[in-house]
Hints:
The complex is a heterodimer.
Chain A: H1 3-7, H2 10-19, H3 24-31, H4 35-57, H5 59-63, E1 67-71, H6 77-86, E2 89-102, E3 107-118, E4 127-129, H7 133-136, E5 143-146, H8 147-152, E6 160-163, E7 166-176, H9 182-185, E8 190-194, H10 198-201, E9 210-217, H11 224-237, E10 241-244, H12 245-298, H13 303-332, H14 336-339, H15 354-380, H16 401-422, H17 425-456, H18 463-471, H19 479-507, E11 518-523, H20 528-538, E12 542-556, E13 559-560, H21 561-566, H22 574-578, E14 581-585, E15 593-598, E16 611-616, H23 617-623, E17 630-635, E18 638-650, E19 661-663, E20 674-679, H24 684-697, E21 702-705, H25 706-759, H26 764-801, H27 810-831, H28 833-837, H29 840-847
Parallel strand pairs in A: 3-8, 5-7, 14-19, 16-18
Antiparallel strand pairs in A: 1-9, 1-10, 2-3, 2-6, 2-9, 4-7, 5-8, 6-7, 11-20, 11-21, 12-13, 12-14, 12-17, 12-20, 15-18, 16-19, 17-18
Helix pairs in contact in A: 2-13, 3-13, 4-12, 4-13, 4-15, 4-25, 12-13, 12-15, 12-16, 12-19, 12-25, 13-15, 15-16, 16-17, 17-19, 17-26, 18-26, 19-25, 19-26, 19-27, 25-27, 25-29, 26-27
Chain B: E1 5-16, E2 19-31, E3 36-40, H1 47-54, E4 62-67, E5 70-71, H2 77-87, E6 88-91, H3 103-113, H4 120-129, H5 145-157, E7 163-167, H6 175-192, E8 195-199, H7 203-207, E9 211-216, E10 219-221
Parallel strand pairs in B: 3-8, 3-9, 6-7, 7-8
Antiparallel strand pairs in B: 1-2, 1-4, 4-5, 9-10
Helix pairs in contact in B: 3-4, 3-5, 4-5, 5-6
Amino acid sequence: xNPIAAVLEPWTWRMAWRDxxxxxxxxxxxSLSITLGIAALVALGSMGRTLRSTIDEQSKALLGADLVLxxxxxxxPDETNLLQRLGGERASEISFASMVSFPGRDATRxxxxxxxxxxxxxxxxxxxxxxxxxxxFRRGEGVLVEExxxxxxxxxxxxxxxxxxWTTRLAGTLRRVPGDxxxxxxxxxxxxxxxxKLPDTGLLRRGAIVRYRTMLKLxxxxxxxxxxxxxxxxxxxxxxxxxxxxxxxxxxxxxxxDLNAFLNLVAFVALLLGAVGIASxxxxxxxxxxxxxxxxxxxxxxxxxxxxxxxVQALALGAVGSLAGVILGSAVQFALPVVFRGLLPFPIxxxxxxxxxxxxxxxxxxxxxxxxxxxxxxxxRVSPLVAIRAAYESAAAxxxxxxxxxxxxxxxxxxxxxxxxxxxxxxxxxxxxxxxxAFLLLAAAARALVWAARRFTPARLPFAWRQGLASLHRPQNxxxxxxxxxxxxxxxxxxxxxxxxxxxxxxxxxxxxxxxNAILFDVQPDQLDGVVALLKGLGYPVLDxxxxxxxxxxxxxxxxxxxxxxxxxxxxxxxxxxxxxRSTWRTNLVDSEKLVAGRLVPRVxxxxxxxxxxxxxxxxxxxxxxxxxRLSFDVQGLALECEVSGIREVDxxxxxxxxxxxxxxxxxxAAPAMHVVATRVAxxxxxxxxxxxxxxxxxxxxxxxxxxxxxxxxxxxxKVGFAIRFMALFTVMTGVVVLVGAIVTGRWQxxxxxxxxxxLGASRAQVRxxxxxxxxxxxxxxxxxxxxxxxxxxxxxxxxxxxxxxxIPWLDAVVALLAVPALxxxxxxxxxxxxxxxxxxxxLRQEA
Amino acid sequence: MQALxxxxxxxxxxxxxxTDLTVLAGVSLSVGAGETCAxxxxxxxxxxxxxxxxxxxxxxxxxxxxxxxxxxxxxDEDARARVRNQHVGFVFQNFQLLPTLTALENVLxxxxxxxxxxxxxxxxxxxxxxxxxxxxxxYPVQLSGGEQQRVALARAFVxxxxxxxxxxxxxxxxxxxxxxxxxxxxxxNRTAGTALVLVTHDLDLxxxxxxxxxxxxxxxxx
Lengths: 848, 222
């Protein structure tokens, strides 16, 4: 009979049920190992489905319009013609950065001002508090401000608001605008005003950086996709960026799927860890049953029949754990929208999905079965002789191909799941290999600990220490399981923590004190002296000052940009050719850059035929130009013939005005320019003082407070980090369940030793000390191995994925090294309490 | 008439590190239907090994074992298990009841392994004959040593085996209980016609058997 046929035999199930009689509570505990992993998969799976369907349903509300065209220039006759041809309903928005002040609160902040004309959004609505505010602001009765900014300054509807020269009142706060994500909106808080009130602000001066958007609601036929396709060339010619609901849907869907896939992998690690827990529980269970197996074989049971009894038990363990996971996951999924709030552009309502639950349960049963097969294989080799001669050991016979097959199917399962999530085989293989290496290293660390404990325990150590260390290598010790489960949990959490600090360091390198942290921009040439004087008067240094002239590329190596843009063979990214270049002129290099090729010409005579310019390394590479190549720029309709004289490498992480194209002095002075000024303020208080003074004298000048940006981005990283850590928590909790399970089995195995010690006169304190030494050393080594793995993983992620340096955040490392052993000891001692406290006789009766 | 159990020239050698350890050397033995045979000898003389080989629990290094007409050497482990299930019963020194099964369930295991049903009455009857009619639903841990061995006895006879192997059946029991168990063993042997092969230290017990095989250092001495 083969094992599959045997599994179908009713007798197998009856025996499996009877055999479990004395171990059901314990088996139930072990089955819970996979529960959290399944719960995480169910919750994420349901959320993934909800996200997909919500994105589909709300795809039009994602943009609020069928088509959005945006440009850096106000519409000219060509654009107007195009819009008339496209037809449909139109709305427009003019947006720019400006300081907004709240006289009642004596507060000022840089905001993204949006002047709206027309009936946008055509789909969905602008959600405000109070709801009536969304109509009031359209009538010009006040403005809407970002909820976070209103909270920051404790603003209430009716409070005065000053924008440039226009003083009005706060109509309400913005909750949600179709097409904007809350997370990114908080970087530059939005202020909505009616388009009709824009002239009152006096903020639209020549040279200011303004974005013009036209939102269109188009008839159903022809489809928007066709319109975009037919007009793509025209859009490009007119330098119009376009966005459609469909494109939004795809982009957003892709980003969220990526996040979901990543979180699913985190959940899968929890499931795998749980499966390791089940496998280790089955191993102990089977070890205890080898005698029964031998008796059954004596009585005439076939190998397949006895094997199937325990296979069925493993199957049931997986099924019970999975069922509990599905129930828990169905409850947890309703918490996920709260966890992900702030990352999604719309509210989501998660619903239970049978398909997701069934899939997760199948994954749980499958994976616990595959893992359980490893210890179960031992059943096949039990000789019936064990029934009459307990010490009998059958000789190992060469390579056990069944074992090899089980290992192969574990590898295939892990790879398959990762592939299913990432849909890229390299990533799937990388995940499986990384996890495999982590498992192997942890297992190797456990072996090393066993070896070292056996070899190096000094005879002079106190009795409890020697006993505790001996527990690490005694037969049927739990060292391997505990190190793998605890180490894997530590590894995962620390890697996430390390990656978070890598990202933060990359965004905000720990700078020196002379780096600017406030940048004033849109300073008109006639305001420059005044602004500098104001700064000096307040005692703030001018760390950097640069004029900015906006321009576009006209020709590249004597070929018109229009030709290159349509020529795919040129392989130049469209945005590089068509973007607006904000260039400066200066006579020297600054701290954040160095010359890597050619030379920097400091100045030229007015009217030079060809102007030598330096290009930033990356943009030169994108444009495909090197030293000596020609290009020309269009500056407000005037052509400037240039030649690349040098290439600069720029450290963009330094907060100072950096430029793609730098001209020599003498070439651009006559062009309309505005200036940026960088300074450094001591703290948030002096920053707001500076902003207030600026707005009083120079209302059009904006100040970007980088300390605030840092805080905002930090918050965003924390939100993503929270979502990731929430899922990682499932892995850690699984680690704890496996830990409890392993300690409980250890308890059963060790109870006789502890009882014997107690009978021989060991005090409860001594028994506890023995347990303390054992669990503390296990916890410490697991944490240490997890830390080493996390350092490796964190470095690899920083180096290969984020292309950034890596430094171990030592505080996190030390916390892990202390917390993991403490947790292990706490769980270990509390689970073993009965042994230390109860009278020996009582335990002898129970354990008999 | 062909013997029920025929051992010819059995040798068993274990490899222990670099050296070979011969625990049985050229032992032959024959037991006919309904006969009784005791295997005696000092500790380490190879008694248990001989019993294991006779019942097909292990395979000899050389020599042949014929049990109920089957040459065990030509069968694989599963086929030998079938032979055991059909023709053989076991009684062990440490009883070897499955601790998670009740007395009745333990007795029924060999029946269930045959795929037979409707034999509950036989099992209840057998347990009654060994004096455990009121302990059917008790677990081994709830029974005394003697009671456990009586359950084992019932289990050994439930398939009406042609041959019963007993490994020190009274080794873990006190004198009175042991005597009672032995009486039952021979009673069942007589009424059911089952051949008995006993491994024992107890010479009084051995003397009740029709044949005594004495072992010393793995060889049969007589």
